[in-house]
Write a structure and sequence with these properties.
Number of domains: 4
Number of helices: 24
Distance between the termini: 50 Å
Number of strands: 14
CATH superfamily of the largest domain: Tetratricopeptide repeat domain
CATH topology of the largest domain: Serine Threonine Protein Phosphatase 5, Tetratricopeptide repeat
Structural class: alpha+beta
Strand content: 5-15%
Helix content: 40-55%
Shape: flat
Largest sheet: 6 strands, mixed
Radius of gyration: 26 Å
CATH architecture of the largest domain: Alpha Horseshoe
Amino acid sequence: MDDLRVGNWVVTPSLNSISSLGRTTRLEPKVMEVLVCLAQHPGDTVSKEQLFQAVWPRTVVTEDVLKRCIAELRRAFDDDARDPRVIETISKRGYRLVAPVTAGSATPAPTESVINDSIVVLPFVNMSADPEHEYFADGITEEIIDALAQIQELHVVARSSAFSFKGKHIDLRIVGEQLNVRTVLEGSVRRADNRLRITAQLVSAVDGYHLWSEHYDREMKDVFAIQEEIAQAIVQRLKISFPWGTKNLVSPRTPNLEAYESYLKGHALLYKRGPAITRALACCQRAVDLDPDYALAWAGLADCYTTLCWYGFVDPRSFMPKGIEAARHAVALDSSLAEAHCALALAALIGARNTAEAEHEFLCALQLNPKYIPALCWYGILYLQYSEGRLAEGMEQARLALTADPLSAYAHAIYALTCTVAGKTGEGVEVSRRAVQLDPESWLANGVLQAALLVNGQFEASVAAGEATLAMSGRHPWPMAWLVVALAEWGKATEADAVYGEMQARVRREYVTPTVLAIAACAVAREDEAIRYAREAYEIRDPNYLQLSRYFPMASRLYRYPRFCEIIAQMGRSEWLQDRPPLTATQEPRAQE
């Protein structure tokens, strides 16, 4: 049977797959046959006998086998038998496909939706004997992505979406379909002492045809030259015009290979977040010690300091000044780096509280690299929304990040959060669920789902999501505070007090960001404690102060306290004191312009 569409899903019987919004699920052959049989009679009840005859014509099977196939289909489509959107059970008779069925191609024609000059660089496979060299293979992959992304005529899939296929053996046609690209670059890296072997091949995602392949046996010192040769080969094979005489795509940022390796390792660890940031900090510090003029490593070092402070892992009084200094040094060394300007923008916003400098640096970063995901996300949620209340603009920046990185759980989570802050709570819940589907182990994605459910008034579901987030985050203070708010709103005062008591107990043993303590104290009606924590956040320059913004839904109740409003005025954020109705599940206010 030809490819077809069931609702928003593309069904490809030849590959036993269904796909939607960048997500592909493989079905067992008999499960696909059941779906095809139902799709041949859309809207009609298909009896169990018809299904048995179509799928198991010469085999005797029990009804339980058919039920299992239907259950598998519902699981794949995220369908609910109690409220079916795809497959409805007709009691004692059979099943009915209620979703609309249309003819459709799983691989769209190039003139329709696939971008003609488009590519995804899949993570190069580490073939080295030492598994520790995984970061090196990842680093080479990312640098080739960055090199190709400079070409305006070429659409290049962003890192997170490309890396979502890491370690998976998926038909390249499915990769092309999910990411809407025509070509795929894949390769491997083998390293032994000072020798390096890199293989690369360019494949058509439409038909699997090999367009180009090459292998490179060189010394480590040639690693940048190899990346340049690969990038040039791709551009020439795709017949894209590029002024080679005036600019190389790969610019070595340091002549020190040891510093380069240390930075790559730190960069990979920084992506992991959580406790890995401390190890990333050590790697980036070593990189700048080895080469004090390595601007990219200084930007990475700044991001390590600021993210440690933002996530509340360290006391900002000791670490944030170092982050600001490292970011300024990165920009001074190389003002052409989007990474450096973005690092300074974040440090200026959450550390120095200099909103004018933050906006200037964010815009510089985005001018240099309009698809730089951290800049789009941080500018959208932290500056435009939390700081300035420009809610619609913040959503748009996050939407751009999601468009550039369509399979990124992080981009989905940030966009979901911007929707929630802007009062689009239903969309916030829907998109945050997608973020969790993309990366079930991401505590940030789960935490955003927890917050979105809370603001949407789904307190019981928010509590359940909060418990899951706490388990995978090491009981991070953010989801703990949101749990206190949800329990209090749900009328579970005793449980809310218990969680708040746990937060207070932790303060006696370790640093806990006072901003979230203030929000939690307010939720359990401890006004004096809420004011004390809010004042502490002001005095120590807590980077989380942006979560005290009137535009952040969890903080809205604090503005009922006159003493809290005095602290906000002392912060120099009198604009946050302007009257604004609270966000609720039933009220979606007009976005602030």
